[in-house]
Amino acid sequence: MIEIPKTIHDDMITHAQEGFPLEVCGILGGAGDTVSVNYRMTNTDASNEHFMMDPKEQFAVVKELRAKGLSMLAIYHSHPETPARPSEEDIKLALTPDVSYVIVSLADAAVPVIKSFKIGSGNVEVEPIEIII
């Protein structure tokens, strides 16, 4: 399970809506299973079908998380037109061990959907999300 504060949950949806029709991406940091910080990242691919985080931004975020005594808990990205489930490319590129992969779907723009997954060695498991205050 991953616990995400409502403010961060809502910010991920806002980020996806602001970036539409392109995919957006970001990093969620925290301790244990609880997210406490959200870092919006640049999608250097500027694509509506895939994302690539800026390596310099990614390095800076990891360094900042360590300085704060936090860990990277999840990588998130949006699916502007498809459901909140990992694509084959998402599964293939899920190379960071022990993190969650969160997808924000705007397939139904009126009802955005966020789902979390654990992905390893090609296996995909749905991970429950608890929205906390």
Main features:
single chain, 38% strand, globular, 133 residues, alpha/beta, six-stranded mixed beta sheet, 3 helices, two-stranded parallel sheet, Cytidine Deaminase, domain 2
Topology readout:
Blueprint: E1 2-5, H1 6-19, E2 25-31, E3 34-41, H2 55-67, E4 71-79, H3 88-92, E5 100-105, E6 113-120, E7 123-127, E8 129-132
Parallel strand pairs: 1-8, 4-5
Antiparallel strand pairs: 2-3, 2-4, 5-6, 6-7
Describe the fold and architecture.
The chain is an alpha/beta fold. It has a single domain (2-127), classed as Cytidine Deaminase, domain 2 (3-Layer(aba) Sandwich), CATH 3.40.140.10. Helices cover 24% and strands 38% of the residues. It has helices at residues 6-19, 55-67, 88-92, and strands at 2-5, 25-31, 34-41, 71-79, 100-105, 113-120, 123-127, 129-132. A six-stranded mixed β-sheet has the order 3-2-4-5-6-7. The protein is globular. The two termini are 16 Å apart. The model has no long low-confidence stretch (mean pLDDT 96).
Please outline what is shown here.
It is built from three helices and eight strands; from the N terminus they run E-H-E-E-H-E-H-E-E-E-E. By secondary structure, it is an alpha/beta fold.
